[in-house]
Amino acid sequence: QAEKGKAKSFALGVAFAIGIILFFAALAILNIVLKLGFGLVFQWGDQFRNPAFVIGMALLMIVLALYMFGLFSFGIPASVSGGKQKGGFAGSIGMGFLAAVLSTPCSFAILTFVLAWAQTQPIILATITILLIGVGMGAPYVVLTMAPSLLSKIPKPGRWMELFKHATGFVLLAIAVKLLQAAPIDKLINILYYAVVLAVC
């Protein structure tokens, strides 16, 4: 879109990063609404003492692991997959927002922890922290649009990406096992049977 115009390339990169940050701004607003609007404060430790919550999180980790193994995928709008994205700054902001949304299966565990932690912190600190995650995710795109020559130094897409994705799936399974350590021992076998049924479904 920039057609070798460095200034426009940088501006579009910043717009893309803004789109990413807007997603995290939405998470920050959700945190504020839960805390102020409904008076809800999710205590991380308290939740993990609740067997139902622990079991639910473990099963969710299994589902996300199956996603990493490629058993299913999330649908992407035809306008994106077909390469018919809207141009200009608005289009770059929209694509940045969508990139952040599509990254959530990979970053779900971290985002859940951050949101739970944010609920126990002052609103300003929590908001800044959540927004800084967005800044961290958007910064590489800005750097690459400032210096496109760096693209040649980035590893090319290939089988290594699939292997990395599969390895992440095993990490999620390990997290599920760790979570199930807190589940009632008398229900553990039934939970594992249900996990098999869930995987088949």
Structure report:
With 201 residues, this protein is an all-alpha fold. It is built from nine helices and no strands. The protein is globular and about 65 Å long. The mean pLDDT is 84.
Instruction: Report the span from N to C terminus.
Output: 43 Å
Largest sheet, in brief, is: none
Taking all Cα atoms into account, the compactness measure Rg is: 20 Å
Could you give the order of the helices and strands? HHHHHHHHH
Structural class: mainly alpha
- Estimate the helix proportion, in percent: over 70%
**Would you identify the regions where 5 or more consecutive residues have pLDDT less than 50?**
none
Tally of individual helices: 9
Name its key features.
single chain, mainly alpha, globular
Topology (elements, then pairings):
Layout: H1 6-37, H2 44-47, H3 51-68, H4 78-81, H5 88-102, H6 104-118, H7 123-146, H8 159-180, H9 188-200
TL;DR?
The protein has 201 residues and is mainly alpha-helical. It is 73% helix and 0% strand.
